[in-house]
Amino acid sequence: MNSMKNTVLMIAGFTLFAFVAAKIGWGDVIPQLRAVSLGLPLIIALSALRLFLQTSAWATALRAEGIPAYTGDLMGIRLASQGAGYISVLGPAISEPMKIRLVGSDAGATAVATLVDTGTYWFASSVFGIIACLGAALLVAQSRGSVILLAILAASFVTGLVLIARPKPLLTPVIRRLGLRAPRWLRKGEEIETMIRSFASRHPRSLRRMFGLDFTCQVLLAAEVASVFLILNIPVHAGTILMLEAANRGMKMLTGWMPARIGAEEGTTAGVFAALGLSSASGLALALTRRMRDLLACAIGFTWLVFKTKVQSSRNEELVSCRP
Fold first, then answer.
1. pLDDT tens-digit readout, 287-312
2. Number of helices and strands in the chain (H, E)
């Protein structure tokens, strides 16, 4: 059933992408892509730095929960699990359990640390999103419609912040209402959520460090956009960058269920460029550059996973052969 959904959504995404590309015209897009390809090493370098910082935040959470963490291995795990989520309709429903399983330590503590890391990253993303909405509204929003759209985006980010930062577990009222009828898995979920929400009080220094690293990642995402602007000789304007980042975060929230966000990312970016009076072809070039970066990350992650699996299988065979 999931494979059927993936196929249908992929076809729909490619159809949307083809429509956007045809509307803009490949004759305008290809020269932009050639120009961007020259700056691809810089964009990959920024992405690699962001991966290192984001993984360092995850390692901080794991160590705080008493789990040995090696940033190099965690980077491979992150790329492999995010790659699986990226190409699937289930997204985080695949990537988060895969991270926990690949770490291979105590499942409960690993789940707490991993979900705290994910929550902290989205908290930092929402904070940056609110800043982007406010900055864009002040610097580039010239119509009532764009201001309303930015206000809706900011409100959704604020809602996310409240849900993430809420100190009391959301599952506790459900457990109380169900009483003895509450299933075991739901009670286990409440225990994990309680541990997640108490992480800040148990490890305040670790959480502050994680937030600092994750917020820096948000700045690096904006720097990637700015670097594409420089490569394409587009004037870099703070309001434009913030508007694009606000729209990008909103698009990710709405289309996270789409495999690789095919078509949605290209259409949204090209549309925002056009709304800002910029070339739609440049917007499509930016979206395709991001897609090349993401596909490269998927390829590296899956290659690492295959290599790691073969190494582990060889070790297991050696252990079996050494037994008397």
1. 888 888 888 999 999 999 998 888 77
2. 14, 0
Give the N- to C-terminal CA distance of the chain in Å, as an integer: 46
CA 2 vs. chain centroid, Å, equals: 21
What tokens appear for 310 in the block?
Answer: 């073969």
3-state secondary structure of 143: coil
Cβ contacts of 253 within 8 Å, gap of 6 or more: 156
Q: Is residue 324 over pLDDT 60?
A: no
* Residues 136/243, Cβ–Cβ less than 8 Å: yes
Pull the structure tokens for residue 219: 């700045």
Please tell me whether residue 285 adopts helix, strand or coil conformation. Answer: helix
Residue type at position 112:
V
Report d(CA 66, CA 47) in Å as an integer: 29
Q: Which pTM does this prediction carry? A: 0.84
Q: Is the Cβ–Cβ distance between 270 and 280 less than 8 Å?
A: yes
Judge contact between 288 and 33, C-beta under 8 A: yes
The pLDDT of residue 12 is 60
